[in-house]
Amino acid sequence: MSNFKRILLVEDTPNDVELTLAAMEENNLANEVIVVRDGAEALDYLYRRGVFKMRSPGHPAVVLLDLKLPKIDGLEVLKQVKCDPELRSVPVVMLTSSREEQDLVHSYNLGVNAYVVKPVDFGDFVAALKELGLFWAVINEPPPGTARSQKG
User: Cα(29)–Cα(127) distance, rounded to whole angstroms?
Assistant: First the structure.
Protein backbone atom coordinates (compact mmCIF):
# COMPACT_ATOMS: atom_id res chain seq x y z
CA MET A 1 0.00 0.00 0.00
CA SER A 2 1.50 3.32 -1.00
CA ASN A 3 0.56 6.52 0.70
CA PHE A 4 -0.24 9.15 -1.90
CA LYS A 5 -0.07 12.67 -0.58
CA ARG A 6 -0.03 15.77 -2.71
CA ILE A 7 1.55 19.08 -1.73
CA LEU A 8 0.38 22.31 -3.35
CA LEU A 9 3.22 24.83 -3.52
CA VAL A 10 2.05 28.37 -4.27
CA GLU A 11 5.15 30.40 -5.07
CA ASP A 12 5.86 33.02 -7.75
CA THR A 13 9.64 33.33 -7.35
CA PRO A 14 11.38 30.75 -9.60
CA ASN A 15 14.43 30.54 -7.29
CA ASP A 16 12.21 29.81 -4.28
CA VAL A 17 10.35 27.14 -6.25
CA GLU A 18 13.67 25.48 -7.18
CA LEU A 19 14.95 25.80 -3.62
CA THR A 20 11.77 24.29 -2.16
CA LEU A 21 11.71 21.38 -4.62
CA ALA A 22 15.43 20.73 -4.06
CA ALA A 23 14.92 20.75 -0.28
CA MET A 24 12.01 18.31 -0.62
CA GLU A 25 14.09 16.04 -2.85
CA GLU A 26 16.99 16.24 -0.39
CA ASN A 27 14.63 14.98 2.31
CA ASN A 28 13.19 12.22 0.11
CA LEU A 29 9.70 13.59 0.55
CA ALA A 30 8.33 11.51 -2.29
CA ASN A 31 5.08 13.38 -2.55
CA GLU A 32 3.63 14.77 -5.71
CA VAL A 33 4.29 18.50 -5.62
CA ILE A 34 1.99 20.71 -7.67
CA VAL A 35 3.51 24.14 -8.31
CA VAL A 36 1.33 27.14 -9.10
CA ARG A 37 2.66 30.68 -9.56
CA ASP A 38 -0.10 32.94 -8.25
CA GLY A 39 -3.13 33.04 -5.98
CA ALA A 40 -5.63 32.74 -8.84
CA GLU A 41 -3.99 29.50 -10.02
CA ALA A 42 -3.99 28.18 -6.45
CA LEU A 43 -7.75 28.72 -6.17
CA ASP A 44 -8.31 27.20 -9.62
CA TYR A 45 -6.40 24.12 -8.46
CA LEU A 46 -8.29 23.83 -5.17
CA TYR A 47 -11.68 24.33 -6.83
CA ARG A 48 -10.84 22.12 -9.86
CA ARG A 49 -11.58 24.78 -12.43
CA GLY A 50 -9.81 26.30 -15.44
CA VAL A 51 -6.71 24.30 -16.42
CA PHE A 52 -7.22 22.09 -13.32
CA LYS A 53 -10.81 21.17 -14.16
CA MET A 54 -9.80 17.59 -15.05
CA ARG A 55 -7.40 16.95 -12.16
CA SER A 56 -8.05 13.98 -9.92
CA PRO A 57 -10.38 14.61 -6.97
CA GLY A 58 -9.19 15.13 -3.42
CA HIS A 59 -7.43 17.96 -1.68
CA PRO A 60 -3.71 18.34 -1.05
CA ALA A 61 -2.24 17.08 2.22
CA VAL A 62 -0.92 20.60 2.77
CA VAL A 63 -0.77 23.92 0.94
CA LEU A 64 2.56 25.77 1.17
CA LEU A 65 1.50 29.33 0.47
CA ASP A 66 3.62 32.40 -0.19
CA LEU A 67 2.25 35.69 1.11
CA LYS A 68 3.19 38.12 -1.65
CA LEU A 69 1.70 36.72 -4.87
CA PRO A 70 0.53 38.20 -8.17
CA LYS A 71 -3.19 38.39 -9.07
CA ILE A 72 -4.52 37.25 -5.67
CA ASP A 73 -2.24 37.49 -2.62
CA GLY A 74 -1.66 34.73 -0.10
CA LEU A 75 -3.87 36.25 2.58
CA GLU A 76 -6.84 36.34 0.20
CA VAL A 77 -6.23 32.72 -0.84
CA LEU A 78 -6.02 31.75 2.83
CA LYS A 79 -9.23 33.64 3.60
CA GLN A 80 -11.15 31.91 0.80
CA VAL A 81 -9.85 28.46 1.78
CA LYS A 82 -10.65 28.88 5.48
CA CYS A 83 -14.12 30.34 4.79
CA ASP A 84 -15.09 27.39 2.58
CA PRO A 85 -16.59 24.43 4.49
CA GLU A 86 -15.27 22.09 1.78
CA LEU A 87 -11.66 23.34 2.05
CA ARG A 88 -11.25 24.70 5.58
CA SER A 89 -9.79 21.45 6.92
CA VAL A 90 -6.91 21.54 4.40
CA PRO A 91 -3.75 22.55 6.32
CA VAL A 92 -2.22 25.79 5.05
CA VAL A 93 1.35 26.77 5.91
CA MET A 94 2.51 30.29 5.07
CA LEU A 95 6.00 29.91 3.65
CA THR A 96 7.17 33.48 3.28
CA SER A 97 10.08 35.85 3.65
CA SER A 98 7.88 38.36 5.49
CA ARG A 99 8.77 38.96 9.12
CA GLU A 100 6.18 41.72 9.46
CA GLU A 101 4.12 41.22 12.59
CA GLN A 102 0.91 42.35 10.85
CA ASP A 103 1.31 39.57 8.24
CA LEU A 104 1.83 37.00 10.98
CA VAL A 105 -1.15 38.20 13.03
CA HIS A 106 -3.41 38.51 9.99
CA SER A 107 -2.47 34.99 8.83
CA TYR A 108 -3.33 33.45 12.20
CA ASN A 109 -6.55 35.47 12.43
CA LEU A 110 -7.57 33.96 9.09
CA GLY A 111 -6.86 30.44 10.34
CA VAL A 112 -3.40 29.55 9.01
CA ASN A 113 -2.05 26.30 10.47
CA ALA A 114 1.58 27.43 10.59
CA TYR A 115 3.71 30.42 9.60
CA VAL A 116 7.26 29.73 8.48
CA VAL A 117 9.71 32.48 7.56
CA LYS A 118 11.98 31.30 4.75
CA PRO A 119 15.57 31.16 5.96
CA VAL A 120 18.20 32.34 3.52
CA ASP A 121 20.70 29.55 4.22
CA PHE A 122 19.97 26.45 2.11
CA GLY A 123 20.94 24.06 4.92
CA ASP A 124 18.51 25.76 7.31
CA PHE A 125 15.84 25.74 4.62
CA VAL A 126 16.33 22.01 3.98
CA ALA A 127 16.04 21.32 7.72
CA ALA A 128 12.91 23.49 8.05
CA LEU A 129 11.24 21.82 5.08
CA LYS A 130 12.15 18.39 6.39
CA GLU A 131 10.29 19.13 9.61
CA LEU A 132 7.36 20.65 7.71
CA GLY A 133 7.18 17.88 5.15
CA LEU A 134 7.52 15.07 7.66
CA PHE A 135 4.79 16.51 9.81
CA TRP A 136 2.22 17.69 7.26
CA ALA A 137 2.80 15.16 4.51
CA VAL A 138 3.81 12.06 6.46
CA ILE A 139 2.91 12.13 10.16
CA ASN A 140 -0.21 14.30 10.24
CA GLU A 141 -3.44 12.38 9.69
CA PRO A 142 -5.59 14.55 7.41
CA PRO A 143 -9.35 14.67 7.77
CA PRO A 144 -11.29 12.29 5.49
CA GLY A 145 -11.63 13.62 1.95
CA THR A 146 -8.34 15.56 1.82
CA ALA A 147 -5.27 13.60 0.71
CA ARG A 148 -6.33 10.08 -0.06
CA SER A 149 -4.49 6.87 0.62
CA GLN A 150 -4.46 4.67 -2.42
CA LYS A 151 -3.72 0.99 -2.70
CA GLY A 152 -1.35 0.12 -5.43
Answer: 12
CB 80 within 8 Å of CB 90? no
Question: Would you give the distance in Å from CA 119 to the centre of its chain?
Answer: 17
CATH code assigned to 6-139? 3.40.50.2300
Question: 16 — phi, psi (to 5°)?
Answer: -70, -35
Chain segment 91-120, per-residue pLDDT in tens: 999 988 888 999 999 999 999 998 888 776
Average pLDDT estimate for 61-73: 93
User: pLDDT band at residue 25, thresholds of 50, 70 and 90?
Assistant: confident
- Sequence-ordered strand ranges (E) for the chain: 6-10, 32-36, 62-65, 92-96, 114-117
Model confidence, pTM:
0.82
Among residues 11, 54, 7, which one has the least CA distance to residue 32?
A: 7
Q: Looking at beta carbons, which pairs linking 74-80 to residues 24 or more positions away fall under 8 Å? A: 74/10, 74/39, 75/103, 75/106, 75/107, 75/110, 76/39, 77/10, 77/39, 77/42, 77/43, 78/107, 78/110, 78/111, 78/112, 79/110, 80/43
